[in-house]
Model the fold of this input.
Amino acid sequence: MLEKLKEIEKDGLKALQSVQNETELVAWRVAHLGRNSPLMQIFGKLGALSMQERPAVGHAANFTKTVLEGVLLEKEKAIKAAALAKSLEEESLDVTLPGRGVHLGRLHPSTQQLRRVLDILAEMGFQVYTSREVETDEMNFQLLNFPPHHPARDMQDTFFVEAGERGDNPLLLRTQTSPGQIRAMRDASRAALNPDNPPPIRIALPGMCFRYEQITARSEIQFNQVEGLVVGENITFADLKGTLIDFARRMFGQNVRTRFRASYFPFTEPSAEMDVECFVCGGKGCQVCKNSGWLEILGCGMVHPVVLENGGYDPARYSGFAWGMGPERQLMLRYKIDDIRSFWANDLRFLEQF
Ligand SMILES: [Zn+2]
Done:
Protein backbone atom coordinates (compact mmCIF):
# COMPACT_ATOMS: atom_id res chain seq x y z
CA MET A 1 0.00 0.00 0.00
CA LEU A 2 2.93 2.33 0.61
CA GLU A 3 4.06 1.54 -2.89
CA LYS A 4 0.63 2.49 -4.16
CA LEU A 5 0.83 5.87 -2.40
CA LYS A 6 4.17 6.65 -4.04
CA GLU A 7 2.60 5.85 -7.36
CA ILE A 8 -0.37 8.10 -6.65
CA GLU A 9 1.97 10.97 -5.81
CA LYS A 10 4.04 10.37 -8.95
CA ASP A 11 0.95 10.20 -11.18
CA GLY A 12 -0.47 13.33 -9.66
CA LEU A 13 2.70 15.36 -10.16
CA LYS A 14 3.07 14.13 -13.68
CA ALA A 15 -0.54 14.88 -14.62
CA LEU A 16 -0.25 18.37 -13.19
CA GLN A 17 2.55 19.25 -15.59
CA SER A 18 0.18 19.13 -18.54
CA VAL A 19 -2.48 21.30 -16.85
CA GLN A 20 -2.76 24.60 -18.78
CA ASN A 21 -5.79 26.42 -17.51
CA GLU A 22 -8.33 26.64 -14.71
CA THR A 23 -10.77 24.12 -16.22
CA GLU A 24 -8.06 21.51 -16.44
CA LEU A 25 -6.98 22.32 -12.93
CA VAL A 26 -10.47 21.66 -11.59
CA ALA A 27 -10.52 18.33 -13.42
CA TRP A 28 -7.13 17.46 -11.95
CA ARG A 29 -8.34 18.29 -8.45
CA VAL A 30 -11.33 15.96 -8.87
CA ALA A 31 -9.16 13.16 -10.25
CA HIS A 32 -6.38 13.32 -7.70
CA LEU A 33 -7.86 14.82 -4.54
CA GLY A 34 -11.61 14.28 -5.11
CA ARG A 35 -13.84 11.96 -3.10
CA ASN A 36 -13.39 9.06 -5.52
CA SER A 37 -9.70 9.59 -6.19
CA PRO A 38 -7.31 6.68 -5.50
CA LEU A 39 -5.82 8.65 -2.60
CA MET A 40 -9.16 9.14 -0.87
CA GLN A 41 -9.98 5.45 -1.42
CA ILE A 42 -6.86 4.60 0.58
CA PHE A 43 -8.07 6.82 3.41
CA GLY A 44 -11.32 4.86 3.26
CA LYS A 45 -9.51 1.56 3.62
CA LEU A 46 -7.40 2.60 6.62
CA GLY A 47 -9.96 1.19 9.03
CA ALA A 48 -9.58 -2.27 7.56
CA LEU A 49 -5.83 -2.36 8.15
CA SER A 50 -4.16 -4.08 11.04
CA MET A 51 -2.97 -2.08 14.03
CA GLN A 52 0.64 -2.56 12.93
CA GLU A 53 0.11 -1.31 9.39
CA ARG A 54 -2.31 1.54 10.05
CA PRO A 55 0.02 4.28 11.48
CA ALA A 56 2.61 4.00 8.74
CA VAL A 57 0.05 3.95 5.93
CA GLY A 58 -1.98 6.79 7.50
CA HIS A 59 1.14 8.91 7.85
CA ALA A 60 2.23 8.23 4.30
CA ALA A 61 -1.29 8.99 2.93
CA ASN A 62 -1.39 12.31 4.77
CA PHE A 63 2.05 13.16 3.44
CA THR A 64 0.95 12.44 -0.13
CA LYS A 65 -2.17 14.53 0.35
CA THR A 66 -0.12 17.47 1.67
CA VAL A 67 2.26 17.23 -1.27
CA LEU A 68 -0.57 17.18 -3.83
CA GLU A 69 -2.43 20.07 -2.17
CA GLY A 70 0.77 22.10 -2.07
CA VAL A 71 1.49 21.73 -5.78
CA LEU A 72 -2.16 22.40 -6.59
CA LEU A 73 -1.95 25.77 -4.80
CA GLU A 74 1.21 26.74 -6.62
CA LYS A 75 -0.19 25.73 -9.97
CA GLU A 76 -3.31 27.76 -9.29
CA LYS A 77 -1.23 30.88 -8.61
CA ALA A 78 0.86 30.32 -11.72
CA ILE A 79 -2.23 29.93 -13.91
CA LYS A 80 -3.78 33.13 -12.57
CA ALA A 81 -0.58 35.10 -13.08
CA ALA A 82 -0.28 33.79 -16.62
CA ALA A 83 -3.91 34.74 -17.38
CA LEU A 84 -3.35 38.27 -16.09
CA ALA A 85 -0.16 38.70 -18.07
CA LYS A 86 -1.93 37.43 -21.17
CA SER A 87 -4.88 39.80 -20.84
CA LEU A 88 -2.58 42.76 -20.21
CA GLU A 89 -0.67 41.90 -23.32
CA GLU A 90 -3.67 41.23 -25.54
CA GLU A 91 -5.71 44.27 -24.50
CA SER A 92 -2.61 46.45 -24.73
CA LEU A 93 -3.66 48.81 -21.94
CA ASP A 94 -1.56 51.95 -22.15
CA VAL A 95 -1.60 53.37 -18.65
CA THR A 96 0.18 56.52 -19.83
CA LEU A 97 -2.81 57.63 -21.95
CA PRO A 98 -4.86 60.38 -20.31
CA GLY A 99 -8.20 59.08 -18.99
CA ARG A 100 -11.61 60.05 -20.28
CA GLY A 101 -12.54 63.27 -18.56
CA VAL A 102 -15.57 63.42 -16.30
CA HIS A 103 -18.00 66.02 -17.65
CA LEU A 104 -18.31 68.54 -14.84
CA GLY A 105 -21.35 70.76 -14.63
CA ARG A 106 -21.10 74.41 -13.70
CA LEU A 107 -23.22 77.23 -12.40
CA HIS A 108 -25.58 78.91 -14.81
CA PRO A 109 -24.26 82.32 -15.93
CA SER A 110 -27.21 84.05 -14.24
CA THR A 111 -26.40 82.31 -10.97
CA GLN A 112 -22.75 83.25 -11.33
CA GLN A 113 -23.65 86.90 -11.84
CA LEU A 114 -26.23 86.81 -9.04
CA ARG A 115 -23.54 85.52 -6.68
CA ARG A 116 -21.05 88.13 -7.87
CA VAL A 117 -23.58 90.85 -7.06
CA LEU A 118 -24.47 89.33 -3.68
CA ASP A 119 -20.78 88.89 -2.78
CA ILE A 120 -20.23 92.62 -3.32
CA LEU A 121 -23.34 93.55 -1.36
CA ALA A 122 -22.30 91.19 1.46
CA GLU A 123 -18.99 93.03 1.70
CA MET A 124 -20.99 96.24 2.01
CA GLY A 125 -22.98 94.82 4.92
CA PHE A 126 -26.16 93.66 3.19
CA GLN A 127 -27.96 90.51 4.28
CA VAL A 128 -29.79 88.32 1.77
CA TYR A 129 -33.55 88.07 2.23
CA THR A 130 -35.31 85.54 0.00
CA SER A 131 -38.99 85.90 -0.64
CA ARG A 132 -41.68 83.81 -2.33
CA GLU A 133 -42.27 83.69 -6.09
CA VAL A 134 -46.05 83.28 -5.91
CA GLU A 135 -47.47 86.43 -4.40
CA THR A 136 -50.75 88.14 -3.75
CA ASP A 137 -51.77 91.20 -5.73
CA GLU A 138 -51.72 93.08 -2.45
CA MET A 139 -48.03 92.33 -1.80
CA ASN A 140 -46.85 92.62 -5.38
CA PHE A 141 -48.74 95.85 -6.18
CA GLN A 142 -51.13 97.44 -3.70
CA LEU A 143 -48.81 97.75 -0.67
CA LEU A 144 -46.09 99.04 -3.00
CA ASN A 145 -48.31 101.95 -3.94
CA PHE A 146 -49.76 100.45 -7.14
CA PRO A 147 -53.49 100.56 -6.39
CA PRO A 148 -55.83 98.51 -8.64
CA HIS A 149 -56.10 100.10 -12.10
CA HIS A 150 -52.96 102.19 -11.53
CA PRO A 151 -51.46 102.89 -14.99
CA ALA A 152 -47.97 101.85 -13.83
CA ARG A 153 -49.25 98.26 -13.69
CA ASP A 154 -49.24 98.29 -17.47
CA MET A 155 -45.44 98.17 -17.36
CA GLN A 156 -45.62 94.80 -15.63
CA ASP A 157 -47.84 92.41 -17.57
CA THR A 158 -48.74 89.76 -15.08
CA PHE A 159 -49.26 86.00 -14.87
CA PHE A 160 -52.31 85.45 -12.68
CA VAL A 161 -52.33 82.08 -10.93
CA GLU A 162 -55.71 82.23 -9.27
CA ALA A 163 -58.29 84.99 -9.50
CA GLY A 164 -61.74 83.47 -8.93
CA GLU A 165 -63.27 84.62 -5.67
CA ARG A 166 -60.20 86.54 -4.55
CA GLY A 167 -61.58 89.75 -6.07
CA ASP A 168 -59.03 92.54 -5.98
CA ASN A 169 -56.37 90.29 -4.46
CA PRO A 170 -55.63 87.47 -6.93
CA LEU A 171 -52.58 85.23 -6.68
CA LEU A 172 -49.89 85.91 -9.25
CA LEU A 173 -46.28 85.20 -10.14
CA ARG A 174 -44.33 88.12 -8.76
CA THR A 175 -43.42 90.67 -11.41
CA GLN A 176 -40.63 92.15 -9.28
CA THR A 177 -38.67 91.29 -6.13
CA SER A 178 -40.13 94.37 -4.42
CA PRO A 179 -42.91 92.55 -2.48
CA GLY A 180 -39.96 91.21 -0.46
CA GLN A 181 -39.48 94.79 0.80
CA ILE A 182 -42.89 94.71 2.49
CA ARG A 183 -42.29 91.21 3.86
CA ALA A 184 -38.84 92.11 5.21
CA MET A 185 -40.06 95.34 6.83
CA ARG A 186 -43.04 93.57 8.40
CA ASP A 187 -40.82 90.71 9.66
CA ALA A 188 -38.48 93.24 11.25
CA SER A 189 -41.15 95.52 12.72
CA ARG A 190 -43.26 92.64 14.06
CA ALA A 191 -40.23 90.97 15.63
CA ALA A 192 -39.23 94.22 17.35
CA LEU A 193 -39.63 94.25 21.14
CA ASN A 194 -41.17 97.69 20.85
CA PRO A 195 -43.34 97.96 17.70
CA ASP A 196 -42.81 101.73 17.67
CA ASN A 197 -39.07 101.24 17.49
CA PRO A 198 -38.36 98.75 14.66
CA PRO A 199 -34.70 98.03 13.80
CA PRO A 200 -32.85 99.43 10.78
CA ILE A 201 -32.77 97.26 7.64
CA ARG A 202 -30.03 96.64 5.12
CA ILE A 203 -30.91 93.72 2.82
CA ALA A 204 -30.53 92.37 -0.68
CA LEU A 205 -33.50 90.59 -2.28
CA PRO A 206 -32.48 88.25 -5.12
CA GLY A 207 -34.71 86.03 -7.20
CA MET A 208 -36.72 85.14 -10.25
CA CYS A 209 -39.50 87.41 -11.53
CA PHE A 210 -42.12 86.71 -14.17
CA ARG A 211 -43.95 88.87 -16.69
CA TYR A 212 -46.42 87.98 -19.38
CA GLU A 213 -44.33 89.33 -22.22
CA GLN A 214 -44.07 88.39 -25.82
CA ILE A 215 -40.76 86.53 -25.96
CA THR A 216 -38.29 88.31 -28.20
CA ALA A 217 -34.55 88.85 -28.31
CA ARG A 218 -35.03 91.72 -25.84
CA SER A 219 -37.71 90.39 -23.48
CA GLU A 220 -38.29 87.12 -21.67
CA ILE A 221 -41.11 85.91 -19.43
CA GLN A 222 -38.69 85.16 -16.60
CA PHE A 223 -35.58 86.92 -15.37
CA ASN A 224 -33.64 87.51 -12.17
CA GLN A 225 -33.66 90.68 -10.15
CA VAL A 226 -31.54 91.80 -7.25
CA GLU A 227 -33.08 94.46 -5.16
CA GLY A 228 -31.54 96.40 -2.30
CA LEU A 229 -33.37 98.00 0.60
CA VAL A 230 -32.02 100.28 3.32
CA VAL A 231 -34.31 101.68 6.01
CA GLY A 232 -33.31 103.66 9.07
CA GLU A 233 -33.27 107.09 10.65
CA ASN A 234 -31.72 110.01 8.78
CA ILE A 235 -31.21 108.08 5.52
CA THR A 236 -30.96 110.57 2.67
CA PHE A 237 -30.54 110.61 -1.08
CA ALA A 238 -26.82 111.18 -0.44
CA ASP A 239 -26.71 107.71 1.19
CA LEU A 240 -28.40 106.25 -1.89
CA LYS A 241 -25.86 107.84 -4.23
CA GLY A 242 -22.89 106.93 -2.06
CA THR A 243 -23.97 103.29 -1.74
CA LEU A 244 -24.76 102.80 -5.42
CA ILE A 245 -21.63 104.56 -6.66
CA ASP A 246 -19.57 102.40 -4.30
CA PHE A 247 -21.38 99.32 -5.62
CA ALA A 248 -20.70 100.35 -9.24
CA ARG A 249 -16.99 100.81 -8.49
CA ARG A 250 -16.73 97.39 -6.86
CA MET A 251 -18.64 95.86 -9.77
CA PHE A 252 -17.20 97.68 -12.80
CA GLY A 253 -13.88 99.04 -11.57
CA GLN A 254 -12.63 101.82 -9.30
CA ASN A 255 -12.55 104.46 -12.01
CA VAL A 256 -16.01 103.90 -13.50
CA ARG A 257 -18.02 107.10 -13.98
CA THR A 258 -21.70 107.12 -13.04
CA ARG A 259 -24.70 109.37 -13.50
CA PHE A 260 -28.26 109.55 -12.17
CA ARG A 261 -31.28 110.50 -14.26
CA ALA A 262 -34.72 111.36 -12.89
CA SER A 263 -37.29 108.61 -13.37
CA TYR A 264 -40.58 107.35 -12.00
CA PHE A 265 -41.54 104.30 -9.94
CA PRO A 266 -44.70 104.15 -7.81
CA PHE A 267 -42.89 102.83 -4.74
CA THR A 268 -40.07 105.39 -4.62
CA GLU A 269 -40.12 109.17 -4.45
CA PRO A 270 -37.97 110.73 -5.83
CA SER A 271 -36.89 108.07 -8.30
CA ALA A 272 -33.86 107.79 -10.55
CA GLU A 273 -32.09 105.57 -12.99
CA MET A 274 -28.39 105.04 -12.73
CA ASP A 275 -26.01 104.74 -15.68
CA VAL A 276 -22.39 103.68 -15.73
CA GLU A 277 -19.90 104.77 -18.32
CA CYS A 278 -19.97 102.24 -21.16
CA PHE A 279 -17.30 99.68 -20.30
CA VAL A 280 -17.19 98.46 -23.88
CA CYS A 281 -16.07 101.72 -25.48
CA GLY A 282 -15.01 103.66 -22.38
CA GLY A 283 -17.62 106.36 -23.04
CA LYS A 284 -16.63 107.13 -26.62
CA GLY A 285 -19.82 105.65 -28.06
CA CYS A 286 -20.40 102.23 -29.58
CA GLN A 287 -23.16 99.83 -30.64
CA VAL A 288 -23.67 98.43 -27.13
CA CYS A 289 -24.33 101.87 -25.62
CA LYS A 290 -26.05 103.06 -28.80
CA ASN A 291 -23.43 105.80 -29.12
CA SER A 292 -24.49 107.45 -25.88
CA GLY A 293 -21.39 106.39 -23.93
CA TRP A 294 -23.61 105.32 -21.01
CA LEU A 295 -25.28 102.05 -19.95
CA GLU A 296 -28.32 101.96 -17.73
CA ILE A 297 -27.76 99.43 -14.95
CA LEU A 298 -30.44 100.00 -12.33
CA GLY A 299 -33.50 101.89 -11.13
CA CYS A 300 -33.58 103.40 -7.65
CA GLY A 301 -35.17 105.93 -5.35
CA MET A 302 -36.13 106.94 -1.82
CA VAL A 303 -38.71 104.53 -0.36
CA HIS A 304 -42.18 106.06 -0.71
CA PRO A 305 -43.74 107.04 2.66
CA VAL A 306 -46.79 104.89 1.87
CA VAL A 307 -44.53 101.84 1.42
CA LEU A 308 -42.69 102.54 4.70
CA GLU A 309 -45.99 102.79 6.50
CA ASN A 310 -47.26 99.55 4.94
CA GLY A 311 -44.09 97.86 6.21
CA GLY A 312 -44.70 99.09 9.77
CA TYR A 313 -42.16 101.94 9.72
CA ASP A 314 -43.30 105.45 10.66
CA PRO A 315 -42.39 107.67 7.66
CA ALA A 316 -42.18 110.70 9.97
CA ARG A 317 -39.21 109.11 11.70
CA TYR A 318 -37.77 106.61 9.22
CA SER A 319 -36.61 106.97 5.67
CA GLY A 320 -34.85 104.67 3.26
CA PHE A 321 -33.82 103.89 -0.26
CA ALA A 322 -34.18 100.95 -2.60
CA TRP A 323 -32.94 99.87 -5.99
CA GLY A 324 -33.36 97.00 -8.42
CA MET A 325 -31.18 95.57 -11.14
CA GLY A 326 -31.02 92.57 -13.49
CA PRO A 327 -28.09 90.13 -13.49
CA GLU A 328 -28.97 88.97 -17.01
CA ARG A 329 -28.92 92.54 -18.29
CA GLN A 330 -25.49 93.06 -16.73
CA LEU A 331 -24.24 89.90 -18.44
CA MET A 332 -25.71 90.96 -21.78
CA LEU A 333 -23.90 94.28 -21.57
CA ARG A 334 -20.66 92.75 -20.38
CA TYR A 335 -20.47 89.92 -22.93
CA LYS A 336 -22.40 91.60 -25.77
CA ILE A 337 -25.09 88.92 -25.68
CA ASP A 338 -27.68 90.06 -28.19
CA ASP A 339 -30.49 87.60 -27.38
CA ILE A 340 -31.95 87.29 -23.88
CA ARG A 341 -33.61 83.99 -24.87
CA SER A 342 -30.19 82.32 -24.75
CA PHE A 343 -30.33 82.30 -20.94
CA TRP A 344 -33.22 79.85 -20.65
CA ALA A 345 -32.89 77.96 -23.95
CA ASN A 346 -30.64 75.33 -22.29
CA ASP A 347 -28.23 75.32 -25.20
CA LEU A 348 -24.88 74.01 -23.93
CA ARG A 349 -23.02 75.82 -26.72
CA PHE A 350 -24.10 79.05 -25.04
CA LEU A 351 -23.92 77.98 -21.38
CA GLU A 352 -20.47 76.38 -21.61
CA GLN A 353 -18.90 79.71 -22.52
CA PHE A 354 -19.27 80.91 -18.94
ZN1 LIG B 1 -20.17 102.09 -25.66
